[in-house]
């Protein structure tokens, strides 16, 4: 889960250095952010949707291979701004499906009542990259005076993860291995288990040469057991537009807004940090990297605390309706108000989020002490992480048969919103100033969030029933 947030945030302190190196404007370098976000949206449409069909493991291997080779190209690129654009897009293509696939893994392994607790550490691991990425990028840029070693570090990271996934990550997709009672085909096995299986087969062949016919019958039987009943379905070409269709349902559109708009806001805050702390507070490259730490800590702590809060909200809602939580097989969410259970704790977070976002812009305008915007970055990071975590889990809850496809639609929405927001960041700041810019964001994201959260709680379950064709009284 580290690949996408690490690759996105390690790059941010490099923006002024890249502009100087390639002799282009900061606005031109911001275009690499927009392009990265665009491919961050497209990648899960292809790969996360495919993971619901072919399994999680082979898609992980493909995406990390793309990511590693793109990082190598960026490390070797010395003079081409066009090459920077293209390779950064390919790097995003490889890195950005990882998080959506990880949501599918969580859905494979956890029942709904315990997904919050699982999402907390998982999001904490991803947010650790948000925390350390800018620091590592800023430290390397400060120590070496060059951007190239940042990309070399990503080459090393990608190669190591590829080896770890290859040897150690088993298949989890339910349509491939069921509840763990079906053996995966060759692409779903770890490299180590494939080696041991071949050795076992060769040993059996050597031990009993005279019973080849019996061995062949036994192997055919084992092969039949390995292939799931829906093997033809597993080779069905996935439709990347399945994630796009999810956006247009009334219940899911609201959930996507609640998950996506705070993410876009936080991306804008991160993209604005280098010029703010360089121009207003006189920070160098290393100090700019360190200024991301408070936001990183906010994402880690916010994700962990919100994971506990989500499970508590689930249990409270279950008690209110007299429902007994099934921690073994999982609850039937077709007759459970999962929308109310997930969204009920968001009101307080929305209030803090609105105030912190508007206050952040005006603190910069008034040249407040540097501790003020740094603290507000912590608060905003925690709130944005809580929204993203809560409503991405809700998205998976209401699409249990295709969790990675649902996560891909969430990724598409938040990346589209982020691309628009980052593209408009510098022109709008130049035109209206940082104070009014962040105030406008708080009105659009926070005010829209209040309306969306109310509709999710009051109408979400009804609209879900209409989408699924379920009788509301049944």
Provide a descriptive summary of the structure in words.
- The chain is mainly α and 474 residues long.
- It has helices at residues 3-9, 15-21, 26-54, 56-76, 81-95, 98-109, 115-144, 148-168, 174-177, 191-207, 212-226, 231-234, 241-246, 250-279, 285-291, 293-320, 338-343, 346-365, 371-397, 403-468.
- It is globular.
- The model is unreliable at 224-235 (pLDDT under 50).
What class do helices, strands and sheet pairing give? mainly alpha
Biggest sheet details = none
User: How many separate helices?
Assistant: 20
SS elements, strand count:
0
Measured as a percent range, the helix fraction is over 70%
Rough outline: globular
Strand/helix succession: HHHHHHHHHHHHHHHHHHHH
Intertermini distance: 40 Å
Strand content: under 5%
Task: Average the pLDDT over all residues and give the rounded result.
Answer: 80
Q: Give me the Rg, rounded.
A: 24 Å
What are the low-pLDDT stretches, counting only 5+ consecutive residues below 50? 224-235
Keywords:
474 residues, single chain, mainly alpha
Task: Provide a compact summary of the structure.
This protein has helices at 3-9, 15-21, 26-54, 56-76, 81-95, 98-109, 115-144, 148-168, 174-177, 191-207, 212-226, 231-234, 241-246, 250-279, 285-291, 293-320, 338-343, 346-365, 371-397, 403-468. The chain has 474 residues and is mostly helical.
């Amino acid at each position: 889960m580290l690949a996408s947030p690490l690759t996105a945030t390690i790059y941010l302190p490099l923006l002024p250095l890249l502009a100087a190196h390639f002799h282009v404007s900061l606005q031109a370098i911001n275009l690499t952010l927009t392009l990265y976000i665009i491919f961050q949206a497209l990648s899960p449409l292809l790969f996360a949707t495919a993971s619901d069909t072919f399994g999680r493991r082979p898609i992980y291997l493909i995406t990390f291979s793309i990511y590693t080779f793109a990082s190598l190209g960026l490390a070797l690129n010395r003079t081409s701004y066009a090459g920077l654009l293209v390779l950064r897009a390919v790097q995003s293509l490889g890195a950005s499906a990882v998080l959506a696939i990880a949501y599918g893994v969580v859905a494979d392994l956890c029942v709904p009542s315990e997904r919050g607790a699982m999402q907390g550490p998982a999001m904490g691991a991803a947010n650790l990259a948000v925390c350390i990425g800018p620091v590592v990028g800023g430290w390397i840029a400060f120590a070496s005076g060059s951007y190239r070693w940042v990309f070399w570090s990503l080459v090393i990271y990608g190669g190591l993860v590829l080896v770890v996934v290859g040897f150690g990550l088993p298949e989890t997709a339910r349509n491939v291995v069921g509840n763990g009672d079906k053996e995966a085909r060759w692409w779903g096995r770890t490299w180590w288990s494939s080696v041991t299986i071949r050795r076992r087969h060769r040993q059996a062949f050597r031990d009993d040469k005279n019973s080849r016919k019996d061995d062949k019958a036994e192997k055919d039987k084992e092969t039949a057991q390995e292939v799931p009943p829906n093997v033809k379905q597993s080779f069905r070409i996935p439709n990347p537009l399945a994630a796009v269709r999810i956006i247009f349902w009334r219940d899911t559109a609201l959930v996507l807004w609640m998950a996506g708009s705070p993410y876009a806001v936080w991306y804008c805050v991160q993209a604005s940090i280098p010029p703010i702390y360089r121009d207003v507070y006189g920070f160098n490259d290393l100090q700019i990297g360190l200024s991301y730490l408070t936001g990183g800590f906010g994402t880690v702590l916010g994700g962990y605390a919100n994971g506990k809060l989500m499970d508590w909200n689930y249990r409270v809602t279950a008690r209110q309706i007299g429902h007994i939580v099934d921690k073994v097989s999982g609850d039937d969410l077709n007759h459970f108000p999962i929308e109310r259970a997930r969204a009920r704790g968001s009101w307080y977070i929305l209030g803090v989020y609105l105030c912190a976002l508007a206050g952040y812009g005006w603190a910069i305008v008034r040249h407040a002490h540097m501790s003020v915007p740094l603290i507000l970055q912590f608060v905003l990071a925690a709130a944005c992480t809580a929204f993203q975590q809560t409503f991405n889990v809700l998205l998976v809850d209401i699409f249990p048969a295709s969790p990675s496809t649902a996560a891909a639609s969430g990724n598409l929405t938040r990346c589209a919103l982020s691309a628009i927001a980052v593209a408009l960041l510098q022109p709008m700041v130049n035109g209206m100033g940082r104070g009014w810019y962040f105030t406008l964001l708080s009105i659009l994201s926070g005010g829209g969030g209040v309306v969306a959260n109310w509709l999710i709680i009051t109408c979400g379950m009804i609209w879900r029933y209409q989408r699924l064709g379920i009788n509301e009284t049944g």
